[in-house]
Amino acid sequence: MKICIVLLCLVCTLVNCQRRHQYDITPSSSEYEGLKGYIVQYREGDLLVGGILDAHRRGSDGHCGHVTEDGIQGIETINMVVEMINADPGILPGVQVGSLIIDSCDMSTHALEGVVHDILPFFTTMKTNQTSEQPIFAGVAGAFASGVSIQTTSLLQVFKIPQVSPWSTNSWLSDKQYFPYFFRTVPSDRHQARAMVNVIVQRGWNYFSVVYKDDTYGIQGFRELEIAALEQNICIAKAISVIERASKDVNNDIIEELLLVRNARVVIVFTNRYQAEELMLAAHRNQESRGHFLWIGSDGWAGDIPLMNTDADYGETLYGSIAFLPKAKPVEALRARISNLTLKHYLLSTGLNPINPWLPEYLAWRLNCSLNDSSNNIDGKPICEPSSHVDYNQLHILSIMQNVADAVLAIAYSANELHKRICSGRTGLCQEVSSMRGTNIFAMEVAEIMKNISFTGINGNTVSFDENQDGPAKYDVIIYNNTIQRKDNDKKWVKAAVYNFTETIWMQANPAFDNARSVCSESCAAGEIRKTETSTCCWQCIECLPNQYVAANGTQCVECDEKETPNAQRNACEPLPVRDTRYHGPENIASMALSVFGIIVTVIVAIILYVHQKTSLVMASSKELCGVMLLGSLICLTSTFAFVSPTNVASCAVSRAFLAIGPTLMYSALITKTVRVVIIFKSFVLSTQLKKYLSASYQVLTSLALTLVQGFILLSWFFLSPPETSLVVKQNEAFPACRYYLDLKVLIGMVYPLLLVIACALLATVNRKVPTGFNETFYIGFAMYSTCVIWLAFVAIFATNESNIPLKVATFSISLNLSAIVLIVSLFGYRCYVMVFKPESNTSENVMSVPRRSLGEVSSSESRNGRLSIRGSLQISNVKDLKVTKVEIK
User: Fold this and answer.
1) What is the rounded distance in angstroms from the CA atom of residue 306 to the CA atom of residue 295?
2) How far apart are CA 26 and CA 278, in angstroms?
């Protein structure tokens, strides 16, 4: 492509050289026809700054259309800045700066012809008698349209001429491999696309449509939107291209197509102002689209519509729209300058003080008057007066003019720096600079300096270029509000936010956007994943299982570990809440209440026995074994507090010991007592040796020996399975628990006491026919039967309970409490009642009374020994003063 352009330029240059003798390219007037016959503006000077602006809109059939506001304002901005430079002694002192401005008509072909015929001849190497007068060319400011800039800079860079655009934002121009001599005072569309998508993401939206112009600006802008949307994982619902000068029907069809995806309420419009206005008019004509779409505008039309302030036509449709503008402010001095321009000034202009040649046409357009005389005035418009001018209050100065001014200043400041280096501070064009006339050397050096230039712009802003020779990525976000009242005739766009490289900072609310939604599918609730359908932004919500959370991508359920649970947001796992089995909860409170009741009963019984220890009932019951039984009961009752205490190794060891030792003490003493009675009443002769083993000390030792067996079992249990804690997970809760009672291993400590219970029950049945005072078998039997029922019930509860750890803990403590209370009430309840409330029955006669059912056995015993063997029993029981020689049978 570059070779073709070079060949084209060489051909054009030769043609120009052949015609140089016929036409002077440095006329003294401000308006002249270029070599192609197009009108240009020329200002004489030692150093020229070129300008490529669209003074006219693109017309039909490749011709220029009517004059444009931004083109005329751009031309006047260049004129104003050049005059400021010439008036400033600190910039290019002694050097007169001139300008050469061509009209691109917003067409690349038209701009290329102007560059070839009117700019490139300044770099011819052919020497003529005019060469010494030929000005030095420094660079080109322009163009507005990206498509025009791509073509013109491709041509200019062949000659290494820098071009500084104030408005070409196409991201392709940032590629310095292809466009090394292109600069711009605005950021790339890559940043604008990201800024737009950033606003959408900020609002929680993920679904939008795009309407873009079918040219390099729109197509590349759409590609950048696609990239930015993909980075943010949001979707484009519809992408529609629109050609230049699309018909009303075409725009109506675009609106109908956008309405097919009604959920995509946000529509980004990446076009110029003319296409944007036609689209808004089409949206206004469609009743369904009024107030439905949320428009986001690119810098191609931001703040520029409605054109000529005719916002009454579609202000309702445009209401709430936002648009992005490269951060800039209107150049206020430009308003006064343009409003003072008249046809009279135009007629008096000269080469050193030119008036732009398109001013008459502009004034006729703005003032709606005719430049023809009355004989040729066929349109009926009034004749334009020489002193007519645009009303100051009717002018809307575009903020883009700051970028135009800064583009010219960038060339001027770079040229000034180069002039200082070459001329060593001398004023005017020194010989070294003058020798560069007719070459591109000066412009090429200006481009190198411009890469690192930094200066204060027209509005006090700092101007510099990044590594891609682009302006800073800063945008003003503006909102259209047709309800506000303006003092002047400015359009009703107000600044609402700023975008600085990565984030949008809002300064004003936008009700149209704040309460709107633009999503294909609403967000899933916590704990639900997205099952995508047609695109990544359209889905169905599926709930995860209770122990699962939603992965970061929102499309997978991930199971938590055993000791974790999903958090409240269901987007991660967290440790399970630990519910310690402490002194709270209905189970523990009931267990402790029962334990306290049992302890009180035990203490009362012990006090009663101690107070009445010399009475017949106590003496016949073997008070030593009663004490052992009460001690065992007390251990069982106090074990509750070990079970419900904070779980640690110590509490686990204590509760295990209490579980094994307490019942063993109770039932070892009880079985010893039962065996004692059996021996006394079932033995025909009590030998001296046998009587010795029936003494109180041997009875206590026997019960302790039986308990020692359980001690060995307990030590073996500790050795094989040391006490330790475990975090048990049940029903989304974690319980710190002693490991030994998580399964049936806990029965290891209960097997031996259970055997004692069974033995007691059997012996009580065998020994059921003895004198009333000794006949505890009824109570022992009742206690043992009740204990068996209690243990069987609680073992069943324990075995079938897999989830409620507090209930398991309560099972142990309540079963032990009930066992102890049943034993105490069964064995000591009646005796305590007699001793306290019927002391008259607490006598030896009542103790020795024989029930009627034992008569046969008594007679048999009497017939053998002549007397009952109760005497020996009583002597063993230390009832030495009791002499019984006869038993009365009633």
Assistant:
1) 14
2) 42
Examine residue 143 and say whether the peptide bond preceding it is cis (omega within 30 degrees of 0): yes
User: Which two structure tokens, joined as six digits, stand for 838?
Assistant: 């019927």
Contact by Cβ (8 Å): 680, 874 = no
Look-up of token digits 């400015």: 490
377 near 431, Cβ under 8 Å? no
Residue 756: Cβ-neighbour burial (10 angstroms; 0-12, 13-18, 19+) = buried
pLDDT digits (tens, 9 = 90+) for 346-402: 777 665 567 789 999 999 999 988 887 665 666 678 888 888 899 988 888 888 999
What whole-number distance in Å separates Cα of residue 818 and Cα of residue 636? Answer: 9
- Output the CA–CA distances (angstroms, integers) from residue 525 to 75, 528, 552, in the order listed: 57, 6, 14
Which residues, 6+ apart, have CB-to-CB distance to 537 below 8 Å? 206, 207, 234, 235, 519, 520, 521
Residues contacting residue 472 through CB under 8 Å, at least 6 positions apart = 187, 327, 464, 466, 501
pLDDT at 7: 44
pLDDT digits 0-9 by tens, 272-316: 888 999 999 999 999 999 889 999 999 999 888 887 545 456 888
* Contact criterion met (CB below 8 Å) for 449 and 418: yes
Asked if residues 114 and 34 have their Cβ atoms less than 8 Å apart, the reply is yes
- What are the backbone angles phi and psi of residue 249, rounded to the nearest 5°? -65, -40
In three-state secondary structure terms, 143 is coil
> Any residues with CB less than 8 A from the CB of 772 and at least 6 apart, and which?
846, 847, 848, 849, 850, 851
Angle between helices 273-285 and 248-259 in degrees, nearest 10? 70
CA distance 798 to 816: 13
Backbone angles phi, psi at 593, to 5 degrees: -65, -45
pLDDT in tens, 436-469: 988 899 999 999 999 999 999 999 999 999 999 9
